[in-house]
Amino acid sequence: MTTGEPYPYEPPPRQSGSGGPDATPPPPRRSLTRTLVPLGVAAWAVLEIWLLTVVADTAGGLAVFALIIAGFVLGAIAIKRAGRRAWRNLAESLQHGTPHEAARSSRRSRDSGGGNALAMLGGLLLMLPGLVSDAVGLLCLFPPSAALLRRVTDRYFGQGMTEQIRIHRPDGKVVPGEVIRDKDKKGEKD
Questions:
Q1: For the range 133-141, what are the long-range contacts, defined as Cβ-Cβ under 8 Å and sequence gap of 24 or more?
Q2: Which range is least confidently modeled, 36-50, 128-142, 159-173?
Q3: By CB count within 10 A, which of 11, 115, 164, 166 is most buried?
Q4: Rounded to an integer, what distance in angstroms lies between the CA atom of residue 121 and that of residue 133?
Q5: 143-166 and 116-127 are packed helices; what angle lies between their axes, rounded to 10 degrees?
């Protein structure tokens, strides 16, 4: 049975004019990042497959299989070691008791070359099948290049994090307040 009325769940018909009251707005544009990241991942996958076929033509399929298995095993070992080191650092910081001591000990372990996130990223890249990911994973695990990567990432991401922490309101205003310590609550002054 038709009544001549439009279906209630369909959008209203577009008018031929550019801006009538019933005209639907154009769909939102996709950001450049959302367009380029999938293309970059696809290009990386094609490059990895191409390099593996070149190595397979040169050295044979068994050599490629051995490279993939060796990368997986080495990556698993790297992730396991980094996880154990992170767990040990957490246990040590919890034994200290105070958050300030825990932050100091985690900073000491990071400064002494114990960057667990970079080691885990390197292990994960080693576990992915491919030669480019293996090379980047080894760069993350090799101490001199890992220190350089850590410095570069701290320079670029560390400053942005500090700015985000300082800005509490969208207009940038600072909210006045005071710090109350446990000693002040009990009536003891510094």
A1: 133/48, 134/67, 134/71, 137/71, 137/75, 137/78, 141/78
A2: 159-173
A3: 115
A4: 10
A5: 120
Length of the chain: 190
DSSP secondary structure letter of residue 46 = H
- pLDDT 10s digits, 97-124: 655 555 555 555 555 445 788 999 999 9
What mean pLDDT do residues 15-34 have?
Answer: 68
In 3-state terms, what secondary structure has residue 71?
helix
If pLDDT is split at 50, 70 and 90, which confidence band does 45 have? Answer: very high
Give the tokens for residue 126: 């080693």
93 in Cβ contact with 102 (< 8 Å): yes
Average pLDDT over residues 60-79: 94
Classify residue 128 by burial, with Cβ atoms within 10 Å: 0-12, 13-18, 19+: middle
Contact 114, 89 (CB under 8 A): yes
In the 3-class helix/strand/coil scheme, how is 76-116 assigned residue by residue?
Answer: HHHHHHHHHHHHHHHHHHHHHCCHHHHHHHHHHHHHCCCCH
